[in-house]
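Hi there. Long-time user, first ticket. I'm pasting a complex I've been working with (about 516 residues overall). I'd like to know whether the download I got is complete or cut off, because the file seemed smaller than I expected. Thanks.
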Amino acid sequence: MIVTKKREFNELMENIRNYKSVFLLGCSECAALCGTGGEPEVKEMKDVLESQGKEVTGTFVAKSGCQVLGTKLELKPFKDAIDKADCIIVMSCGAGTQTAVELYENKPVLPANDSLFLANMTRLKVFDERCSLCGKCILDKTGGICPVTRCAKGLINGPCGGSQGGLCEVSKDTPCVWQLIYARLGKLNQLHFLKESSQPKTKLVHPRKLIREDLKSKKEQIKGA
Amino acid sequence: MGFKEALNSKKFLVTAEIGPIKGTEVQEIIEDAELIKERVDAINVTDLQSSVMRLGSMAVCHLLIELGIDPIFQLTCRDRNRLALQSDLLSAWVLGIRNVLALTGDHPTLGDHPQAMPVFDLDSVSLLKVISMLNEGFDMVGNQLKGAPDFLPGAVVNPGADTEAALEMQIIKMERKLEAGARFFQTQGIYDLDLFEKFMKRVESYKTPVLGGVILLKSAGMARFMNKNVAGVFVPESLIKEMEETKDKVKTSVGIAARLIKGMKYLCQGVHIMAIGWEKKIPMVLEEAGL
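Hi, the file is complete. Here it is re-exported in full:
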């Protein structure tokens, strides 16, 4: 999931100071899990904005805010409410915000949240970064634990000499991921992987785009069956 | 005799370390280097040690060459990508630098510019491979060089890693560094010769010179600070007590360092002295150690 954090409310108010009316768009996926853009948060935002003298012309929580076509369809019934609003506030991640930007080219779209990282929700309220979407997975060699993401230096050829008591020198409440990898490879009888040296990481060129010609549309799936 | 010849001569090696200052006043560095140059086989020059912005290692190495010293250019992956690392290596060679110590480098958050972008495009192992490729006349993607360097590449190892997993991985990484071309190793500061002996037994089959690290203790406080904050360094309580009770800190510090060096003569192929500001005391240490 994409973990998000609510931006300071004052900052949001500053951004919409010239607008009288807003439409609120949440997301039922990650933002809902993070408590930054599900039904309750959207309702709360509506109440607060109204108490501050703003008109809320409508609200909607998209199924997946990052899915442009789906969100477009879902928002059709809200055309009037969106037309009436001076701006749209999106309570999801940066991807969701830019879905709205793509759909409403003449309407200012503002983010209510900061997008932080791709996270595993390891416990209620706890989000841990485990994958950095680097584009070249090495989990097969590291016991399934990612050093690119979980080592402060992203080291792929074993640890630096800086851990103390099994903890990372950069943040003392974070385990040295290479010690976790060592322990897990040991349990799996796979310590030999540590002796293989890894190729330097390949840096990403942004923005990335993927076209999956092999993916079938729903119609094609039905035809095929 | 340059460091490479000293390494091949099988003599007990002595290297020291100089840390460039923040600024352009190089007089003290030059004084320190002049004072120790006859006593050491090479002088390491650190690369923004502790991730603190300072004068660069390459420039100071060049100054040392002008004094007739063979420097060991410390090069970290902290703030240079693969283009800059390779280019700096070529630049270093044309400035007369012949020895490189390849390091991953401290994280910028530990230094005085914690907001700096951490690079770590390569790491110590891949940097050693790059040095080996440059030596063979190619850059890391296989393009041919017009004129190739012939560096002596070295690396570091931390024999005092404090957990079994950390130590095992230090040894595995040492093997990888060897495969990548490391021809000598310098270690983190060592205070426990028994532990070091066990480590040396583990790595003696590699047949590659190891220079044991000796950090001069300036005070009991410094020892306690290192025990708490410097990974792999553990000063035993008995040495801390010696420093605490002495009336002459310099004499005691020199005595402790000399004892450690005497012990290391039987365990490894040389010593690497990190004086951290007390460079002028290095001749006394070597005198007392009989070197």
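A couple of notes from our side: Residues 164-179 of chain B form the longest helix (16 residues). The two ends of chain B are 16 Å apart (CA to CA).
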